[in-house]
Amino acid sequence: MIEALLKKMVKVGDLTIHLPNGSTTKAGDGSGPPVTMRVNGRGLRRLVANPSLGLGEAYMEGDLKIEQGTLWDLLEIVGKSGGRTPKRGTPLKRAQKAIKRTVQSVNDRIAARRNVAHHYDVSNALYERFLDKDMQYSCAYFARPDMTLEEAQAAKKAHIGAKLNITPGMKVLDIGSGWGGMALTLAADHGARMTGVTLSTEQLALARERADKAGLSDRVEFRLTDYRDLDETFDRIVSVGMLEHVGAPNFQTYFDTVKRLLADDGSAVIHAIGRMSGPGATNAFTAKYIFPGGYIPGLSEIVRAVEAAGLWITDIEILRLHYAETCKHWRLRFLADPDIPAMFDERFRRMWEFYLCGAELGFRYGGHMVFQIQVAKKVGALPITRDYMFDGERGA
């Protein structure tokens, strides 16, 4: 049974597995750095029953141990073997059935707040140890391959700020404002009057503290509010890394709300993870342990919701390997931090290591990408060429 699974999942690399009965089996073509792992009986049963969930659970619970190489080395063998290669685009009806089988959460207000708390209210101190200094927990923008994480995250904010085309004094809404970095940057660098909304109490407290320290409390307001409950108008809306938490049944509500909250000549920039293969199902390990209620959409799903909302799509950009590089920085920082072992137990650390490795794997080998989609209510709301974006990013 395990031999058949290995033959399916491992086609390249040099993998040795010590089995619970004392035997050893090898897989791959012998190329690359050798990886050796040992699995006990419970771990083997997990792997055979459900490889996509079982591999993560076996590593997290200590049923699978890496004796030579690293977890990333193991997962990269799977990625290079095509184990995460997206299949040809799935016809819509079959994809919709797949989504239903994963029991996508409706994410009402109570569920949405509970799901956010599960991930973001763990501890600000955890995120401070592997994110950049501004605590940007989303895809960075590597305009140059030699950029540091701090430089790439600053470049991401400048990239989005240029697309927003803000003039000083504009009212700007940040849906899913996190620890406040984007809102504070748009206020300081672009003169925006910012409103940030989040469902995380931990993020809210730190964002407000940061606004006070930066002397921006008169221009930046953070609220513990569901975006659906807002009842005011904004010149611009930005949302970074939040759409993934909405859930497939709520995409239409999301874009209907964006339209309702925008001024007639307003526009919005939505930055979110997507999948190049179209609608699909959330990775089982991620859904169970990391982002309950989350769902990564195909761009086709988002375009349909935008069209149904009656919004103009004024620009789309696809960022491909930028998030793979971002996750690599996070993974290496997480593993190198000397304080994390004292702060969290081994199971939690293994869970997060697997999550960070798996995320990088998805973007490097599994068809995940990031899209930035700009929408507007009116056809003439923005300049008719993209020159203003390039000028704004250069600071012209």
SSE pattern, N- to C-terminal:
HEEEHHEHHHHHEHEHEEHEHHEHHHEH
Helix content: 40-55%
Shape: elongated
Largest sheet, in brief, is: 7 strands, mixed
- Note the gap between the termini: 62 Å
Provide the spatial order of strands within the biggest beta sheet.
7-6-5-8-9-11-10
Estimate the strand proportion: 15-25%
Mean pLDDT: 91
Instruction: Please count the helical segments.
Output: 17
- What is the strand tally? 11
Low-pLDDT segments, ≥5 res: 99-105
The structural class is alpha/beta
Radius of gyration: 22 Å
Description:
- The protein is 45% helix and 19% strand.
- It contains 17 helices and eleven strands.
- A hairpin with a 5-residue loop joins strand 1 and strand 2.
- Helix 11 (251-261) packs across helix 13 (299-309).
- Mean pLDDT is 91; it is low at 99-105.
Summarize the structure.
45% of the residues lie in helices and 19% in strands.
Task: Name the descriptors.
about 400 residues, 11 strands, alpha/beta, elongated, four-stranded mixed β-sheet, 17 helices, single chain, seven-stranded mixed β-sheet
Q: What order do the helices and strands come in, and which of them pair?
A:
Layout (H helix, E strand, L loop, with lengths): L1 H8 L4 E5 L5 E4 L6 E6 L1 H9 L1 H10 L3 E5 L2 H10 L11 H10 L7 H12 L3 H5 L20 H16 L6 E5 L5 H10 L2 E6 L2 H13 L6 E5 L9 E7 L10 H11 E14 L8 H7 L8 H11 L2 E8 L2 H15 L3 H4 L2 H20 L2 E9 L10 H8 L2
Parallel strand pairs: 1-3, 5-6, 5-8, 6-7, 8-9
Antiparallel strand pairs: 1-2, 3-4, 9-11, 10-11
